[in-house]
Write a structure and sequence with these properties.
single chain
């Protein structure tokens, strides 16, 4: 009761702007100028937000509890990220991920190179949960083939990036796919199912676009040696079998049957362990090591080794630690009313579901531009707008869809964002050159907004209350 009587005031708008401005400055300087990881800049921004909270009148005890509460809101995502790391390591060891890539590469034909590149990148990204890993391995091989075909490299890069981000956006193995629903207040399987509506529409448009573009170059001969080298390397070093597609199919079935995320993913791990024993003939020690440290590929083929050296609980700590730090910042900003002060100004211009989604999308793009890291472009807008969605009776999966449709995919379209830098450097094509061909990435946020008008990307909380994670528990 005494704590309620001494309730400090909420932050003024100028105080919130200063906190955000400081975070933007330190993130931009750290990432863009010094090329450091975003963790310490995020921590510095959190410290500044805490100092601002003290200035407003909050006790340290309240500030500390707000950080704990922010972390609590992301605990499910943190647990899922941890077991996803285990799953990836086990699936690579068992041959599940190599089999998905092997069969995906089998669809490549010169006459449909561009559309096939989208599909291959999609399959690889769905299998691994990483757009970066896909572009840095399969993407490089596809760029080499494009050069041999005489296909403009910006066009090929756009196809590869579009496919890579489609897979990254939908894969339950992706860190951003787990982060967005955690921030919004729902589970990953509910999030993925809801995203399918708008994502598939844009994906079909993307495939049609590249199929049309490919007609001009379809009659040329192609040197598929790079792709054949990868396929041969996979089959000669790892046992490939259609049976190894059962674990991902089981996870997909779990999504369809509304099995909770953690047990659904665990089923995939168990099936992977069984197939690792039966098909690859590994022992328990190898499985335990892959589950913790990840799989280390040693085929001698650079493209394969870079792609398949991945997974493990240990390797998920980058994402987990950044999530914890970002949620500490969000917890302080939310508790002290700094988020509310900014959102109130934005909501003055917002009417209806489409307006709220539009505000979310543009805030995500602004975050990607000013705090150039896609994780931050999901967490900060997510915590800003979560109360507004709840107040208007919208389901949090509507927010998580908007976050992924803008925060995740637009990061590759900004030259100074970490994702834009990686894509352009890895593929050897500037962001400005591949921008107009990365059709999936720039149509996705537009689709989230436009499809809200007929209600496709709109969902009410009362229609699916069982999939809402109450952050106030």
């Amino acid at each position: 009761m005494n704590e309620q009587q001494s309730q400090p005031r909420k932050a003024y708008l100028w105080e919130a702007i200063i906190s955000f401005g400081f975070l933007i400055a330190v993130m931009a300087i750290g990432i863009a100028k010094y090329e450091v990881d975003p963790h310490i800049p995020m921590l510095v921004g959190t410290i500044f937000a805490a100092i601002m909270a003290l200035k407003i009148g909050y006790s340290w005890d309240r500030i500390e509890k707000s950080m704990f509460h922010g972390i609590y809101q992301a605990l499910q995502a943190i647990i899922i990220l941890a077991i996803i790391g285990v799953l990836i390591g086990v699936w690579i060891l068992a041959g599940v991920v190599p089999s998905m890539i092997y069969y995906g590469l089998g669809i490549l034909r010169p006459s449909i190179f561009l559309v096939a590149s989208v599909i291959i990148a999609s399959i690889t990204s769905l299998a691994t949960g990483t757009s970066w890993g896909t572009v840095g391995t399969i993407g490089i091989a596809l760029m080499g083939i494009a050069a041999g075909l005489g296909i403009p490299l910006p066009m090929a890069a756009g196809a590869i990036i579009s496919g890579a981000y489609f897979g990254d956006k939908l894969s339950p193995l992706s860190d951003t796919t787990n982060l967005a629903p955690a921030v919004a207040g729902t589970d990953v399987f509910t999030h993925v199912k809801f995203m399918l509506k708008s994502t598939i529409v844009v994906y079909i448009i993307t495939l049609g676009f590249f199929l049309f573009l490919g007609f001009k170059y379809g009659q040329a001969g192609a040197d598929l040696s790079a792709i054949n080298t990868i396929r041969d390397g996979l089959s000669s070093n790892i046992k490939i079998s259609p049976l190894l597609l059962l674990p991902p199919l089981a996870v997909i079935l779990s999504i369809a049957l509304k099995v909770p995320a953690i047990p659904g993913i665990t089923i995939g791990i168990i099936l992977g362990v069984v197939e690792a024993f039966l098909i690859q003939g590994v022992d328990l020690g190898q499985i335990l090591n892959a589950a913790y440290s990840g799989f280390e590929s040693a085929t001698g083929i650079v493209e394969i080794d870079e792609l398949l050296t991945a997974g493990g609980l240990e390797n998920m700590m980058f994402s987990i630690s950044l999530t914890i730090l970002a949620m500490m910042f969000g917890g302080i900003m939310e508790e002290t009313g700094q988020l509310e002060a900014i959102v109130k100004v934005i909501l003055r211009f917002v009417k209806g579901a489409a307006g709220l989604i539009t505000a979310t999308v543009f805030t995500c793009i602004l975050s990607n531009s000013t705090m150039p890291e896609q994780y931050i472009a999901i967490v900060v807008p997510g915590r800003m707008f979560a109360p507004a969605y709840k107040e208007k009776g919208f389901h949090p999966k509507m927010l998580s869809n908007a976050l992924e449709s803008a925060g995740t995919v637009t990061s590759a379209l900004i030259p100074w964002n970490t994702c834009g830098v990686f894509m352009s450097t890895t593929l050897g094509v500037s962001v400005g050159a591949y921008f107009k061909f990365a059709i999936f990435n720039y149509l996705m946020p537009l689709a989230a907004i436009l499809l809200a008008l007929p209600g496709i990307t709109v969902a009410l909380a009362k229609d699916d209350p069982g999939t809402i994670i109450d952050s106030n528990l």
